[in-house]
Every structure is written in structure tokens, then in C-alpha cells.
Amino acid sequence: MPDVVFVFEVHQPRRIRREIPYNVLLDSIRSRLSVESLEKYIFNSELDRLVVERASKRCYIPANNIILNAIEEFKRGSKRFKVSYSISGVFLEQCEKWAPEVIESFRALASTGMVEFIEQTFYHSLASLLSEPGEFIEQLKMHREIMKDILGVEPLVAENTEFIYNNRIAWILNNLGYKAVLTEGVERVLWWRSPNYVYKAWGCELRVLMRNYRLSDDIGFRFSDRNWSEYPLTAGKYAAWVSATPGDIIVIAMDYETFGEHHWPESGIHDFLYWLPRELLKWDNVETITPSEAVEKHEVKDEIDVPEWGTISWADERDLSAWLGNEMQQRCFKLYQELEAYVKALGDPTILRIWRLLGVSDHYYYMATKRGATEEVHSYFSPHKSPILSYQIYLTSLTLLVAILSHKINDNRIKVAKRLRVDLSRAFQFFEKPGKPVGIQARSLIELLNAIEIVPEKSIRYHVENRDLQKWLTTMFGLEDVSAKLDELIGLEEANFKEKVIEIIRNSIIRG
Asked: Is 132 a catalytic residue?
């Protein structure tokens, strides 16, 4: 008896302008630009508003009404119709500005008790792929806050952006107390097993629900395809397929924009959605339940092991290639990741907000260089159509952020240096001599001081003489004056060499 779990992902990005007034912004760096001003110059609010208003009329309002009516109708019968939504925070922000009626329609759905809301990253971002987990955790908490504030709910189940999943992500979600995570039913992970069961994450107790991508994509991608052998797809035909599918649960998940945006109302998609619950629940062996109910009702079938190098998603080849599959995407993400430590150390909420908006996964999706049908999907979503143009526009926005960030850091150099903790890949590694590491590293000035206390003086002298330490302090922290003072110690044979190095670095921290 299959229990059907419907999951609808609801998201709209902030799209970057094709022509950012770069010179205007650089000329205005010294003034205190508000978040609204920066967003106005970098992001295309006019286009964003147009898309949200259009999608509201074609998709969100009519689809929500259809589902709400079905929920109310089945409340009077022996079966219940239940669905779940994963709504990004950046989408809710846009609806608050331009489509408040959409917010009200989701509140009406929440009030029925038949709808579960799923956690995701606030900005629908690639934060889970950053080397440090802090930003991912922070965005989950931000999402929880906006869901509680706007819809009055606190999600118990999580769905990472675009179903991106690996063991590390599972462990983080498990430690945060989530009951389950949703991801893709990928054959190279499942092998001989079916996605239609409850699984457990490798090495922890988090439950894993896996999307049946064939049944999901029959609606999400193939519904309007006149060349498809099963066209036209009717609710009755689809319900029969579901009823005949073996397993405990069937996770049917897709973009909510499927219902009116990706497939226009003229395609008959709203009629299909109207009849779907009625045809499904005709079958004695079919029920609809929420993700939380699924993990409470069904026993764990097996354990799912997805190492970081085999990260999965629901996009393209069901890996990370939709966002990080080419050199353009990888270069941009590397720069984006390197900026995190400096943005956080600066502590300016305006800059942090812009950095996070530039982390929305869609920006990387637009840069994908795929071929065939996959290329058509990427082009359909992209406001720029060309991956090269998308790359140029995104890189320009990152370059602008670097320029503004650099100026603000120069005005607060010591303060930022004191708070800065660089990425692990940029940590200072201590050596006694070439090829002989000490096994100690430092990522901040405090860590550097603590390390120097225990590192042999021979190693410290080696790095000062070779100017390794000076270069790191200048490149990572902008402390040219501290580096100059360390230069003065080159060739110094005094016994208190280590103490002098410690004193120079400690004084720079005290000044901050």
C-alpha cells in the first residue's frame, strides 16, 4: 500500500542586472549605501517583480486554491489529502513586497493542518558546499525564523537546495535535530534498492526520503511533451501508475512552478492538478501523507552512504555539475567562498546581505554549459540565455563586491584583521625546513599567536627569514606595517627572537 508524499519546492531568485552601474557604485563607496540601494543597483527588481506577479497569477494562487479545495473536500471523507512545501526565504521576501496575496494563500493552507512545511536554506544557496558549515547552519536558522514569523510553523524535516545531499550534510542536519531529509533517488547510490522506502543516513539517525524521479518528472518535465509516448497525461492514468508502484512510500517532488509557469495553464496542468487527488484517492491502496508522518509510520529499510565526492542532487546528471560543472562556475564559487571570511569579519549587515544574495544557486545554474535537452532547461530559466554572459555578469557583481569590501576593510583594517579567520585552504602551515612540516597551522591572528608559543623557534626563524609569515600577514590580513616590523628581525641572532615576534603580532591585536 504506497503512501504518496507530495513535495513542492517554491523559489524565485533575485536576478542580477545585465548592466550594473559599476562606476556609479564605485564613486559612491565612501557614502553609506543602504541594503536597498545596493540591491537596487545590482539586482533587477523590475524583472523580479514581473516574474513574481506573473507566476502568482499563473501558478501560485490558482494552484494553492486547487490544493486548498481538495484538502477541504477530503476532510469530509475517510481519506485525507496532504502535501508539503519547501519555500525559500528569498521567495517569501519578494512575495511580501509584490504578492502579499500569495502569503495569505499559504497561510490558509497552513491553517488546514494537512500541509507540512519543509526547511531549506533561506537564500536557496550553495551554502552547504562551503568548506565551513557555519553559513549553511545560519541560513537554516534564518529560514526557520521567517517560516515561524510568516506562516507560524517550525519545520521538522529539511530539504537542502535542489536536493543536494551527502553524508556531511546529513550529519549537520542530524545534529540540528531534524527528523528527516529529502533527496534524490539516484541509482548509483541505491544500486538494486528502490527509492520507495524510508532509509537512514550513514553514521547517524537522520531519516532519508528519496524522490521517485521517474514519476515526478512525468509531471514536472514530460506533461507538455507532445512527443512523449504517454502524452497526454491524465490524472486517471497517473493515479493508476502510482497505485501499481511497489514500496512503502512514493515521494513525488517538483518545482511548484510546474503548475502554471513551466507548463502554462493552457496545457491543462491545472485541470490535471484538480483531478489528481480525486483520482489518486479512489484507489483503496493509496494514501497521501506528509514527510514527518512517513518517517514515523514506516520502518527503516537500509542505510544510505553518500560521501562528499559523490554528492547527489535532483538536477541534470543528479550531481553538482548543474552549478559547478565547468571552470567558469568553479572559479566564481572559489572567489565567492574566499570572500566569506572577510565579509563575516567586517560585520557590515549590508555587505553580508549582498554576499548572501550572490550565493543564490540560480546564478551558477545560468552558467552551465550543457548540451541537448539539458541545455534547453538551463536556457529556459536563465534571464541572460548565454552562459558566457551569465558568467560575465556574475563576475562583475563579485568584483564590485570585492571593491566595496576592500574599501570598507581599509577603513577598519585592524578591527577586521583581529576578527578574521581565513578558510582552511589559506591557513598558515609551519615548517622546520622545506618538506618538513611541524604539523601546526593557524587561520587567525589569535591562532597564530597560540601556535608561535609552541612551535620551535627554528621554525619561526625559518618563516621570518624567508618572509613567509610576512607575506601571509600582508596577503590575508592587510597588515603591511606588522610585516615591515618583522622584516626588521631578519638576520637578528638574539636569543629572544621568538618573544620579539610574539610581541609584534600581539601589539597589532591590542591596537585593534
From this structure: no
SS (H, E, C) 294-340: HHHHCCEEEEECCCHHHCECCCCCCCCHHHHCCHHHHHHHHHHHHHH
The continuous run of DSSP H or E covering 438 comes out as: strand 436-442
Would you list the DSSP string of 66-81? Answer: HHHHHHHHHTTSSS--
User: What is the maximal distance between C-alpha atoms in the chain?
Assistant: 89
Considering the candidates 116, 162, 184, 279, report the single residue annotated as catalytic.
Answer: 162
The distance in angstroms from the start CA to the end CA of the chain is: 65
Q: What is the pTM of this model?
A: 0.94
**Phi, psi at 111, each rounded to 5°:** -70, -15
Burial of 98: CB neighbours in 10 Å, binned 0-12, 13-18, 19+:
middle
The tens digit of pLDDT for each residue in 450-507 reads 999 999 999 999 999 999 999 999 999 999 999 999 999 998 887 789 999 999 999 8
Q: Are 441 and 454 in contact (CB under 8 A)?
A: no
Question: For the chain, what is the radius of gyration of the CA atoms?
Answer: 26
Contact 467, 429 (CB under 8 A): no
Q: DSSP readout, 143-183?
A: HHHHHHHHH----SEE--GGG-B-HHHHHHHHHTT-SEEEE
Cell of 493: 641572532
The backbone torsions φ and ψ at residue 245, rounded to the nearest 5 degrees and listed phi first, read: -85, 125
CA distances from 273 to 21, 211, 277 (A): 44, 19, 8
Whole-number Å distance between alpha carbons of 90 and 74: 32
Q: CA dihedral defined by 346, 350, 356, 358, rounded to 10 degrees?
A: -110
Contacts of 424 (CB under 8 A, 6+ apart): 131, 132, 443
Check: CB of residue 437 under 8 Å from CB of residue 431. Answer: yes
Residues 68, 60 contacting (CB under 8 angstroms)? no
Per-residue pLDDT of 53-104, as tens digits, reads 999 999 999 999 999 999 999 998 889 999 999 999 999 999 999 999 999 9
Collapsing DSSP to helix, strand or coil, 19 comes out as coil
Choose among 490, 427, 436, 492: nearest CA to 459: 436
- Please count the other Cβ atoms lying within 10 Å of the Cβ belonging to residue 338: 14
